[in-house]
Amino acid sequence: MSVIIFIIILAVLIFVHELGHFLAAKRSGIRVDEFGLGFPPKVISKKVGETTYTLNAIPFGGFVKIFGEDPHLQDIKEEEKTRSFYYKPKYIQAFVLVAGVVFNIIFAGFLFSVGFMMGQPATADTSRFGEIQDPKLVITTVLPGSPAQQAGLVGGDAILFVEASGNKRGVQLDTTGNLTAEQVSKVIGESNGEKITIMYKRGDDAPKTAFITPVDSIIPGKKAVGIAMDTVGTLKLPVHTAILQGIITTTELTWATIKGLGSFLWGVVTLQSNFSQVSGPVGIAGVVKDASKLGFTYVMSLTALISINLAVINLVPFPALDGGRLLFVAIEAVTRRKIPSKVATWVNATGFILLLILMGVVTLHDIIKLF
Hints:
By secondary structure, this protein is of the alpha+beta class. It has helices at about 1-25, 90-120, 145-150, 180-190, 240-270, 280-295, 295-315, 320-335, 340-370; strands at about 30-50, 50-65, 120-125, 135-140, 160-165, 170, 195-200, 210, 215-220, 220-225, 225-235. The chain folds into 2 domains: about 1-125 and about 235-370, no CATH class; about 135-235, Pdz3 Domain, CATH 2.30.42. Strands 6-5-7-8 form a 4-stranded antiparallel sheet, covered by helices on one side. The protein has a 3-stranded antiparallel sheet with strand order 3-11-4. A two-stranded antiparallel sheet has the order 1-2. The protein starts with a helix and ends with a helix.
C-alpha cells in the first residue's frame, strides 16, 4: 500500500510541476504539442485542440512537449516562429521554465493550509496563530546508523517514558504532556554508558519499549543515542489564519531547504558531504509508509515537503533541470548570442544520464540499507 501511495504522491507532484510549465507556455502563446503523465509507452492518448494529452505506463515522471524547445529536432516554418519557445523573448522563456517550480511551492502552501484547517501536526515554536493541542514529545530525526536507529526508533515516534538502568525513578509523560526534550537528554547524558529504557508510541499502535546503550561518538564528550526531539501537537485553525500559517510554514521550509541543499552541495565540492543521508525513491517510499501509519494529515505534510524539495532541487543550475535551462537562458541574454541548439540538447542529455546514474546509485544504497 505504501508503494501505491508513493506513486500517487509522485504522480500528483509531477502533474502539478508540469501543469505550471503547460499553463505558462499557453499563457505566453507558445504551442504545446503534448502533455504527458508518466513515461511511454502510451496507455491513453487524446488530442484536444493542438495538444495531445497522454497517460503513460511508467509512472515515475511526466513531461510537457513545448514547440520549439529543441528547434533542430523540429522543422519550424517562418509563420510558426511566433508560437515557438526558441524564438520567444528571454523573459518569456524564463517565465515558462520557472513556472513548474512556482506551482510546486504554491501546491505545498495549499496542502499546509488545508492541513491546518483539518488539524495538522505542528510544534509550539512554529505556530503563529494558535496553541497546539495534545502536545507530545516526538522524535523528529533519527541519525542513520545510530543506536536509536538500530533499536528501531523512527521519526514520528512519541516518547512516553525514559529511564536509565541506574535510575529507577524514570521520567515519564503525564496527562499534561510535560515530558520535555531537556529531561530526556539529561537522562541519556547521565546514563554513564548504561542501557536506557525508552517507551514510545507509533501512531495508533500499542506502546513499545526500546533498550538502547548511549555512545559518545555522536556528540563529543556527551552520551547520545542519535535522536532529535520536539514537542508536537495538533494545530487546527480557522480558514483565514490557516492560510496565513500555511504561507508562513511554506516560506520557512523553502528557505530551510535552500540552505540545507546549499550546505550539502558545498560539502560535495569540499568532499565533506555525507551521502548516506540522501534518499531516493525507495527511501522516500519508506518515509511515506511511516507517515501513512500516523494519519492522512501526516501524508499531506510529507507531500508538501517533497513538493518543496522538488522545487528547490529543480532550480539547481545543472543540465536537464529547470535551473540548468535557466542558466542557458541567462547566458544567452548576457552574450546576446544563442547557444547552438545541438550543443544545448547534448548537454541536457548528458545531464539527464548523469542524474539517472545518481538516482540508480542512491536507490541501490536505499535497498542495501533495508538489509
